[in-house]
Design brief:
Number of helices: 5
Largest sheet: 4 strands, antiparallel
Distance between the termini: 19 Å
Structural class: mainly beta
Radius of gyration: 18 Å
Strand content: 35-45%
Strand order of the largest sheet: 1-24-23-22
Number of strands: 24
Helix content: 10-25%
């Protein structure tokens, strides 16, 4: 049997963007627009409420927090007095809600976006219909200087989501959620991201080809996928994997929060599945952290629809101590 994470916190809307900073776990509740800090004891404290739904998190070298406003299409910076000021503006960049963010040790912020109104689409059509021609709209990752100035845009990607720097500090690993793959991009000397290359495909090649086919094969595949698009079926499957948040693992691997079902998956280069840890619900973010650095944390959800999630307050933080 797969190891299973235990619930350590509950009662949230949509937990996202797990970060370890200053001996504590930080995270967003994007359904309620709040940022929280938890020292792993008791209940977490609420740090700030962010206009436009809090998203990605990061910290500048001087300790000031950066936080994405998803609907505001900007990144806020929290000043020492607790106030929020606009750090970076993505209004003219983002084709949809602003998404996850990674802030490097120099304070450069890498920010993705949906590329289109994802929630409006799936409220009317099955998720599989996203792949009908002309296909999923692509979106770039924006790179900002520590002062919030735009340094450049990456090549367009399919729903760029979680991201982190690999151990060499020269490669950014990106989760393309709706492409069901992890992609590597070199970090250039000026901080911009270079040409992408495949790192791990998390869907069978024949299925990816079929669901994107513009002809009858694609039409049938998308219709069948829509009929099978039920959580009970997804929970009994092991493929494909839709990577949402991602985090560094041991020996150059990546932990992936699977947005399709309740699990975190350890993935190696090329897509080798090395481990799976079950969670009680679908996962949106994961992180290996904690006081001893040996705990896999997972942010799990009952629904990713923000209004409905805010009513349910069923999102949880789950944890599993990894074997040494």
């Amino acid at each position: 049997m797969r190891p299973k994470a235990a619930v350590v916190l509950d009662g949230f809307g949509v937990l996202e963007s797990l970060r370890w900073h200053d001996d504590a776990l930080w995270f967003c509740d994007l359904a309620h627009g709040t940022v929280h800090r938890w020292d792993t004891v008791g209940r977490p404290e609420t740090i700030v409420e962010v206009p436009g739904r809090a998203g990605g998190l990061g910290f500048l070298p001087d300790g000031r927090m950066l936080v994405v406003s998803m609907e505001g299409r900007c990144v806020y910076r929290q000043e020492p007095d607790g106030s929020l000021v606009v750090h970076a503006d993505l209004t003219d960049i983002a084709g949809g809600n602003v998404n996850d963010m990674f802030v490097d040790q120099q304070g450069r912020a890498y920010v993705g976006n949906f590329g289109f109104d994802y929630h409006a689409f799936i409220s009317k059509k099955p998720n599989s219909m996203i792949y009908a021609p002309p296909g999923v709209p692509k979106a770039p990752i924006a790179c900002f200087s520590p002062q919030g100035e735009l340094l450049g845009l990456s090549e367009p990607m399919v729903f760029p989501n979680g991201l982190f720097l690999t151990d060499d500090g020269q490669t950014m690993l990106v989760a393309e959620t709706l492409a069901m793959r992890l992609t590597a991009m070199p970090v250039l000397p000026d901080g911009q991201l270079g040409p992408p290359r495949p790192w791990a495909s998390l869907i069978e090649p024949w299925l990816w080809k079929a669901v994107n086919n513009p002809g009858p094969i694609g039409h049938i595949t998308r219709r069948v996928s829509a009929l099978l698009d039920h959580q009970a079926i997804a929970d009994r499957s092991s493929s494909p994997i839709a990577p949402d948040g991602i985090a560094p693992g041991r020996d150059g691997t990546a932990w992936v929060a699977n947005a399709l079902r309740g699990e975190c998956v350890q993935v190696g280069p090329g897509g080798t599945i090395l481990d799976r840890v079950a969670t009680s619900q679908r996962t949106l973010s994961c992180l290996v952290a904690g006081p001893k650095g040996d705990t896999l944390y997972a942010a799990t959800i009952a629904t990713d629809d923000p209004p409905r999630a805010a009513q349910l307050n069923a999102s949880r933080l789950e944890a599993y101590v990894l074997p040494s």
